[in-house]
Amino acid sequence: MNSAAVYPPVAAPADMYPSMPGYEGMGQGGGGFLPPPMPAEPVAPPQPGPEPEDWTIPSLPEDVAREAFKSFASSNCCYSKAPATDGVITQMEPFNTYRYRLETYTESRSTEWGSKPHEGEVPDFYTQTAPRPWEVQATPPNLFTNHTELIRVPYTSSVKDCHDCSATGKKPCKECTGSGHKACWVCNGSGTKDDLNCSHCNSTGKEKCRKCNGRGYDNCETCKGKRQLLTFVQLKVEWTNHVEDHVVEQNSGLKIDNLRSVSGKELFKNNQYLVYPLMGFPDPAIGEASARMVQEHQSKYAQTSRILQQRQTVELIPITKVSYKWKGDSHVFYVFGNEQQVSAANYPAKCCCVIL
What we know:
Elements lengths: L31 E2 L28 H13 L7 H5 L1 E7 L2 E21 L29 E6 L5 E4 L8 E3 L8 E3 L8 E2 L2 E2 L8 E3 L8 E3 L8 E20 L17 E8 L11 H18 L4 E12 L1 E8 L2 E8 L4 E3 L13
């Protein structure tokens, strides 16, 4: 039973909410994250994925590196295009590296008391036994997609008088503090302007409060003027994709942070309920990272969440260090990723731009 109009829990007397079988420990602050139930049947152990076929990446051609450098220079308004156009490439060194990524997709559940203005709904508290938090039906989104859903737990709703307005449906207007009028803005409440009677307020020094239209009160924000609240147990279901990367160090001089925004050649991809640590990879650092991260994810997220699926991938990220000469001096730039992004920290021809 989903609720499209759910409001956050409100500060309420401790005795406002009834005792609910299965939710006895839930106070005003909510019940916190709930550990998932044990699987009904034993889970099959994870299996190793298929062996990858090709671990290599073609060398970057010089003309491709130059075009990437020209595009980089053109995209920076303060950079002269001369080094990219006239510089002479003297050396191109590949420093390709691996990136291992582990994704653990979880479902977590937490409960708290919720309320909304009562709009004629029939309370269902005690008409049947309320389902336990992990018994409530919730449809997950596509795998590895973050999503949050708020669900009103069936058979937990009851009607209460609004505590915020003492069931009157009204609260004093904050603008006029309940008086229905404010000081006249023309005469500042004096009744006169330039020694003459103020025509705007007929010399009263007051004018009708526009916010409450002179009534002196507004509808109660908690019950929206309905005088009563429908209270219920609100279940929060969160599907979260926990992503962690490990990039093997390379000695090119390019900072690893630059690689966060690029993709590489996908060498390996495997997903199942629980993945098996990657074994037999040419670079032992990847196997070590996989074993460590798989163990950490399964121990960390299984405590408060239900693991729905895991996915691991290995990419080979191309990195080429390009040395070039311009005006007799030696310089360096990097081309990296499938997107052929460029990094040139010490570009030799910068100017000061003035943006009008």
